[in-house]
Amino acid sequence: MRAPVVVVTHGYFEYSGYRMHKHHIEHLVRQGSIVVYPRWQNSMVTPCFGPLHIEKCVSSALAGIRGGIAQTQRSEDPVSPDLNRVSYFGYSFGGILTTNLVNRWRAYRLPKPRAVFLDEPHDGGLRGNSDPGLDKSLSGIPANTLLVCHNGGQGVTSEKGKKRSSCNAIFPRLGHIPRQNRNITRSYPDDHGRPALTAEHVRPSIEGRPNAYDFFVVWRNFDALRDAALTGKHREIALGNTPEHRYTGRWSDGTPVHPLRVSSEPFLD
C-alpha cells in the first residue's frame, strides 16, 4: 500500500521530539498520510540563529526530509510513501524554511510540492522586518502547486513595523502561480463565547490542547488543500473567497465564529 506524504516543518524552539505539532501529526496520520517531521534545530542558536546563516538551517531541514523519506522506504511496514503525492506544511520559522525548500525542490531533488500550507511564516526579524531569510525569487515553486499562507489578526503582521512581513513578504514573489491556485487567509479573535478564540502567532495546540482555531483555520483547510491537489475534491473549502473557505465554525448557541478573510494578494491594511 502506498500513502501520501506530508512534510511538517516546525518553528523555533523544537529541540527534541515533536511536541509542537503532536496533535496535527496525529490528525494527519489518522487520515492515512505518512508524516515526515525534520527536526532541524538542536539548540536556540544551532544550527542557525534565526535568519543569521539561515542556509545551515535549510541544510538541516533538507537532511531531515531526505532521511525521513529514506527511512520510510527502507521500512518493513506494508505502507510505503507515494512520492508523487507530497504536500508541505511549515509553521513560523519552519514556514520560511518550507518556502525556500519547495522553491529549490528541483535542485535538491525533493518530491514535487503538490500542496503547500504556510502558517504564520516568519524568520524572527533579526535582520529586518520583511523576512530577508526568504529566497529573493520564488519562481522555483511550480505554477500548479496549490499554496495557502495564513496569518492571524493578532500575529506577526499585526506587530509594529511588520505589515510587509510573513505572507505579505511571500505573495508578491508568487506572480507566476495563478491567482486561483494561491490564497492568503487571515483569522480574527472572537470572544463571543468562552474560552475566547485568539488569532495570535502561537496556536493553542502548540502549547496545549487544540481548539476551533486549530481545526477550522489550519487543519481543515490544509486537509482540503491536499484533497484539491491530489484528488480534485474540496477545492471550494481550500481556495477562493468562498463561504466554505471562510467558514470557521459556530459557537454552541449557533452564532458563527468570525470568518476568515481570503485574498490572492497581500493584506496591507
UniProtKB/TrEMBL annotation:
SUPFAM superfamilies: alpha/beta-Hydrolases (SSF53474)
Domain of life (superkingdom): Bacteria
The protein, known as: Lipase
